[in-house]
Amino acid sequence: MDPEVVSNFLSEQRENAPEDLQQRFLTIEDYWDRKLWHQLTDVLVDYFISAASAQQRLPLFRHFILSFAEKINQLKFVSLGLLAATQCSDDQERLSFLSDLAKKVDKPGSQDAYVYALAAVSDVKLRLQDFAGARKDLDTAESILDKFDSVETEVHAAFYRTNASYYQAKAEFGSYYKNALLYLACIDLKSLAFEDAQSRAYDLSIAALVSDSIYNFGELLLHPILDSLNNTRHSWLRDLLFAFNRGDLNAYNVLEVNISKAPLLNEHKAFLWQKISLSALTEAVFRRPPHDRAMTFQTISQETKVQPNEIEILIMKALSLGLLKGSIDQVAEVARINWVQPKVLDMKQIDNMRVRLKDWDSSVNNLGNWIEGVGKDVWAA
After folding, report:
1. pTM for this entry
2. Rounded distance, CA 201 to CA 181, Å?
3. Tens of pLDDT, residues 31-48
4. Is 145 buried (19+), middle (13-18) or exposed (0-12) by CB count in 10 A?
5. How many CB atoms lie under 10 A from the CB of residue 333?
6. 3-state DSSP percent of the chain in helix, strand and coil, to 5
């Protein structure tokens, strides 16, 4: 680009910029003139992040940055493009802009930047209800990511965020839950606005409860994102998750009145009862020592509040989901359980385990004393 044209363009932009940002244009022109591409990129990114630069992002990107795009870090080039795209008039214009951006970085040496751009393209397609197009782009991005040994966390974060949005839109709760947690693992939670953190905690909680493939909420229960629900109108949802985790039917009955506040939970009310019953069953097994896990159907009915004629179905469901391992004696109406799926424990459950360990320690001591008592002659010999 002609240096005089650049100088005139930057001078024009400087005059249109807020007074406190005008000095930066002199720095931008100086770095461009000296071909200090790395420093120039950093100054531009810093300028674009400023809210006051909004009106100038598109002109600067189209008439200045594109002229030296191949000379700068392609990931930062895409970052500048994404910031510029926020100023497009609508999603159709934004889609066209981002699609062109993705094509520019679709090269062997900049596939990470290509994934970054594809995630943004997919996000716009989701807003335009083009689910097939979004899925195609996300599948392409995923296949590229799978080939990388390592990649910048911002690239992974962009992919997981958009992938989670896709699954949420398609009501695939298990996949949404997984991708949403992976997204949170890629970012600094402090960078999320409180409202955004609360919204994500709410959506994750709902997905965990209504998903037919998630019966262990440990990762979510331990995640600090859940704390954003404390002392809010959705705090009951956090309490409900912990009630499910410990199979607490009494707590569920108390919290059940809130279910109507969440349409998705209300739609899945019958399923939620089945899920809490399964949790109550696994908790009842977990509380028992390994040598005392042969449970009659009547005992299970009393602990899970499930009708006696539905107990066998409940146990079979738990076995098929991998929550329990064991066998059922249909004639004697006894379930013999030899394994229960591990899960995150609250303080009450930890205390129960402490009691069990003390009982086990006492049993071992008694056994040792008995062996010593009956085997005196042997030890003497």
Report:
1. 0.88
2. 10
3. 999 999 999 999 999 999
4. middle
5. 16
6. 75, 5, 20
